[in-house]
Design a protein that fits this description.
The structure is a single chain. It is built from 10 helices and 14 strands. Helix content is 32%, strand content 24%. 30% of the residues are buried. It is of the alpha+beta class. A 7-stranded mixed beta sheet has the order 1-2-3-6-4-5-7.
């Protein structure tokens, strides 16, 4: 059973869109994040003079599904951020709108540590596939002692835990990777296996809710093209075709080439059907045929009844 974690958040200037710090109990790491517009205030903080890892995050104009991310390291993060804030033609980076830096409260992170961390995090981000990395390939840093490598592996896991809390999901493990590591994915999922079908069009899809995301499984079929007027999820359908998440047409259907996480059952249902649908009524529980909304209502009612007894 997964145990809970305590994460302490502090709004530095008292506003949710300003500078924010985050710490996990019993972890020496310290996280500082904020928008680019607050960079002049951020670089004045003591954390920016330390050795650490930093992330530059911004939208990808060519892909609405994933952000652009640059992962870097420095023994003086503030100086490096000032360099990145320059115009592109002067050696800076224009794409980013948000920065997040991770340092150590006990200041025991060395240059060798952060180089190794940078390598691990670039590899993880590439494997997860939730962002487009600006870095390119990760360099291999293997000169750390075995004990230090173990410490940095733990440090990496803490970073991957705290960043999604701050709205930075690009290191959060996907359903497919998690299922490979934990074969009993049915027990760790938030719902039973679900299915959706449109017999006339030969469409059959399966899905499962997992950690707040609605995952459509590899091999599920969809309509070969968007069947309604442009709008709604039509842009997402086109994007998935372009990205190769949906295969080339096979007759009148396409197939999911891998698992894909949607924000809601309705988003997933719309891509499968080729037009907007109510996902809470179109997805059904495998085996029983129960509508998904009814199954959810049943789960809530069971908990309420148990609590009242």
């Amino acid at each position: 059973m997964t145990q809970g974690r305590s994460i302490r958040l502090f709004l530095v200037d008292g506003t949710p869109n300003g500078l924010l710090t985050a710490e996990i109990m019993n972890w020496t790491g310290h996280v500082l994040t904020g928008p680019r517009s607050k960079l002049s205030e951020l670089v004045q903080r003591p954390e920016c003079g330390r050795t650490g890892i930093y992330f530059l995050v911004g939208p990808d104009p060519d892909n609405s599904l994933r952000p652009l991310v640059y992962i870097g390291e420095s023994d003086d993060v503030g100086t490096r951020l000032k360099q990145h804030n320059r115009p592109e033609d002067k050696g800076g980076k224009d794409f980013w709108e948000k920065v997040c830096l991770v340092t150590s409260k006990d200041q025991n992170l060395t240059k060798a540590h952060v180089k190794y961390l940078e390598s691990l995090l670039i590899q993880n981000a590439g494997q997860v596939g939730r962002c487009k990395l600006i870095n390119g390939t990760a360099h291999e840093y293997i000169n750390l002692p075995e004990s230090d490598r173990a410490d940095m592996a733990f440090f990496t896991e803490q970073i991957r835990t705290v960043l999604p809390v701050l709205g930075l999901d690009f290191l959060r493990e996907t359903y497919g990777n998690k299922a490979k590591a934990e074969p009993s994915d049915d027990t760790s999922a938030d719902s039973p296996r679900l299915y959706m079908q449109i017999p006339k069009q030969g469409i059959q899809a399966s899905a499962q809710e997992y950690e707040g995301e609605f995952i459509v499984m590899k091999g599920s079929t969809t309509r070969d093209e968007w069947g309604a007027k442009p709008g709604g999820y039509s842009a997402l359908f086109a994007q998935l075709c372009e990205e190769g998440v949906l295969s080339e047409p096979e007759g009148k259907v396409r197939r999911f080439t891998r698992e894909f996480a949607f924000s809601s059952p309705s988003a997933a249902g719309a891509i499968v059907a080729g037009y907007n649908v109510n996902g809470r009524t179109t997805w059904k529980v495998e085996g029983s045929g129960q509508v998904y909304s009814e199954w959810q209502d049943q789960q809530v009612s069971a908990v309420v009844n148990e609590a009242s007894e």
